[in-house]
Specification:
Layout (H helix, E strand, L loop, with lengths): L12 E5 L3 H13 L3 E5 L2 H10 L4 E5 L7 H9 L9 E5 L4 H10 L3 E4 L4 H13 L1 H5 L7 E5 L2 E5 L3 H65 L5 H30 L7 E4 H11 L9 E5 L4 E4 L1 H18 L6 E10 L2 E8 L31 H11 L4 E5 L5 E5 L14 H4 L13
Parallel strand pairs: 1-2, 1-3, 3-4, 4-5, 9-11
Antiparallel strand pairs: 6-7, 8-10, 11-12, 12-14, 13-14
Helix pairs in contact: 2-3, 3-4, 7-8, 8-11, 9-10, 10-11
Amino acid sequence: MNDPKPEADRPVEILIAEDSPTQAEQLNYYLAARQYAVTVARNGKEALAAVLAHRPAMVISDVVMPEMDGYTLCQEIKSRPALSDLPVILLTSLSKPEDVLKGLACGADNFIRKPYDSKYLLARVESILNNLELRKTERARPGVQLSFGGQQYYITAEKQQILDLLISTYEGAVQINEELQKKQEKLEAANRELEAFSASVSHDLRAPLRKISMFASMLTEEHSPALGPEAQNCLQRIKDGIIKMDRMIDDLLRLARLGRHEIQLRQTDLNDLVEDTRRDLDGNVAGRQIEWRIGRLPTVDCDPGLMKSVFANLLSNAVKYTGRRDRALIEINQTSLGGETVLYVRDNGAGFNAADTHKLFGIFQRLHGQSEFEGTGVGLATVQRIIQKHGGRIWADAEVDKGATFFFTLRTLAAICIQPGEAADHQATSPPLQEEHQP
């Protein structure tokens, strides 16, 4: 009969509780490569049964599982005197402070943030296993009651458990910061490339465009009588294309400069800003019947120049897309949606298919043909970038041939409260232009 294998020669046994076969296999691969003996359970209930049948040296458990989550599994293990010193590592996103408090409350020894680095995972496993003897010398201490976010947590963890948990939380935060730093560096590199591109656009595209424009003008001035109607039509289309291309270059340059533009916040009366913008459009609406409905808008902290660009784009779009209405209606106002103050610009124009809303704010994305309504497809992308720089968001609602509404928020609007007397005018999510939307 063979002698039992000496304890020192036996591989350290680790139980994995993980409902994802892919994640379980990945963990198994990492641990087995370090000569750990690995057992896999598909959920917390199965893992608890395995622990009770044969105690491992450690349990590594996912938090989110269909039958008995990781917190409950840990609590069930730690509540048994014979298993109270069994180390349990929880795999989680560590996205909220409540995660740490729940981990402390159930007696978890460590968190490993997903997605995890294999070297970090193995280092934490080895550190906890090496500290087992130290923890055994600690005396059990009475628990403490904590209140956080309206929830009560009873913490009985030992000092070493708390230290390990705090270290893993700190390391998780450091890892998140490093990831954010890398993303920031990539974003800055992308902005530099965009600036270089904008400079290239300004120089390399405008130079040939000027030549085309010059030769087109020479043909018109010196050879117009010799050109037939078809040739003159082609020449006019060349000139129109030059004008459109020049506008596109200007719009692209403005969009590129937004990345490095530091916003200068000043208290700004949006009514004055909208009125200035509306007056700027007077030359484009001569002879048209347009009813402007401008409500009482708030005074907010914003960059006046950038915010005027927002209204210039939204109002000029409203003017453009109501061009085929005998009587155009354009409304600028504020409303309350879900307790949030929201500004909006609404028109009774051509509208668009709601299924195409996701395309609205992309560069060169247009929902109408050039033959219907001219444009470069850059304006709304610029508007979105400006709103985002102000800590807000923008979205739209529309129906074909029944008009469109553009809603947007600003960070500073969070402090703006609509006056009680105005509530009746502003609570509706869709102020009434419905009947007048009909052509």
